[in-house]
Every structure is written in structure tokens, then in C-alpha cells.
Design brief:
The chain crosses the membrane at residues 7-27. This protein is α/β, with parallel strands linked by helices and 316 residues long. Helices cover 43% and strands 7% of the residues. The chain has a five-stranded parallel beta sheet, with helices on both faces. The longest helix has 23 residues, at 2-24. Residues 23-29 and 139-156 have low confidence and may be disordered.
Amino acid sequence: MKIIRSILFTLGFIAILFTITPLFAPYEIDQFAKGNSTAFNGIFAEDTNRLDMLFTGDSESFTSFMPMRFWEKLGIKSYNIAVASQNLADGHKTISHIIQKQNPKMIVLETNQVYTNIGGLANLVDKSMTNTLANVFPILNYHDNWKQILSLKKAQSVEIKRNPLKGWRINRKENAYEGGPYMHQTLEEREIPTLNRHYLDEIVSLCKEHNIQLLLVSVPSPRNWNYEKHNGVSAYAKENQIPFLDLNLEADSIGINWQEDTYDKGDHLNLKGAEKVTRRLVDYVAQNYKIKSEYTEEERVLWQEDFNAFIQQINP
């Protein structure tokens, strides 16, 4: 009898979840947008299959790569889909989802996440189950929307609008790095963890499957990078015939000034640093790739408006 009651209770609870979930869930946009920032979600305001370049990674990526400079200099339509603290497992998931809606010719992957801890298999399974349940029952992500329910209002939707910064995040603060040289040449190699390597392999395979050119880039970051990591990624890149541009080795030549170009003592670049890194990457892409974007007249107007708004934000 107790077993029957337990089964009936469980079925009843599931029925209730199915009934009330629509009241809690956002109702305008792709479920993948939930939990992500407005900066990231701007990609869902872009027309389908019209972006030719994506930048991915963690905060090292979204503070460094400025898509609108690629539009200004090369006419390439791009977006930065990096997510804070993103590891390669989540990065693979993000890329897999976005390329269902976009058909990029090139993806630039910032390499800090190559060494970001993913966790053990049990942790991944647990996370996978949690994500699955959250997709079936968005109430698990939006339980705070009970206030709208009590006031007889539908839950607030995720904000989706065109983002003139195209996923890049601006920061003008200056907080100097005082640690001195950090790229000390060595033959030692920081091994890429097994699980990280698996998901990096998955990203490489995904790019090959969709005929996407993959470029690995490491942005200058004394707090996060060293020569051992450079050697580890360089070995992987050579093994898989993927180009790798380590700007930590070019920090001086591209003009990085650690007194002015970081906002948090060498962890991330600020606006000044991002301009220098992006300028170098624009030149690299121009010299090594033939990527061109096509435009309708409406798109030209929209991107020009986005660029004008971008300029206003970086030069207030």
C-alpha cells in the first residue's frame, strides 16, 4: 500500500510541475538563453546563418576580442559567445547549440579554458542530469518568479535585443600588474587534463564536421598563463594541425603596457588592452584567412547603426 501511495504521490507531483512550469518559464526565446547574460543573449537577435565568425572561451575572451573592430576593418560579421568561467565541456555545449542557428566560417577559441577544471565523470553526469531536468521543468531555473505568479503576471522573459558590442564586455578601469616577466622559456609542458582534452577533441571534430576553421588564441594574462601551458597547447595544436597564436609571447610587440592595459592586476585586459589584442588578431586573420561576409541592404544599415552605438560606448 505504501508503495502505491509513493507512486501516486510522485505522479501527482510530476503532473503539478508540468502544469505550473509554463507560468514560471520565459516565453519568448530559445531555452538556451536562460541563465546567460544580456551580452551573450544578443546573439539570438542576429539573423539566422548570417554570422561568419565566432569567439568562444571564458572571460579572457569576452574582455579581449572586439567583434565590431572586425566589422570595421574587414567587414566580417562576428559575435563573442564567451561565458564567464566556462570550461570546455560547457564550451562544447555552447558551440553545438549556436551552430544550429549560425553557420560560421571560423571560430576563435581562447585557450585559458583548456586548463579550467571540469570535474570528474560523476560531476559531469550529475550536471547533465540537472540540465536535462531543468530543460524539462524550467521552474527549476526560474523558481524566483513566484512573485509574478502571486500577482497573476506571467514570468518575465529573457531579455533579447541587438547588442552593439556583440558579446564583448567593456571595462575602462586600470589596475596595474607589477609582477614583471612571466613567460620564462622552458621545455616543460603542462599536460592538458584527460577530460579537458576529450572535450577539446569534441570541439575540433565539431568544427571539422561543419567545415569551420578553428583558431586557438591565448590572450596576454600574467595571472593565468605561463610557458608550460603554452607548450601544452602548442603540442596539441601541432598534433591536430590547428593554428595557435599565443599573444603572451607578443605582449611587448603589440604594445601591451601592464601599467595601463589591465583592470585587475594582469588577470583580464581592459579597453586599452582589448584594442591592442584585437588589432593584432584582425591583422592575423586578414593575412591568413579569406573570410568575407555578405550583406543585404537592411543588414548594412543595422550593422552601421550597431557600429555607431559601439563607438559611442567606447568613446562616451
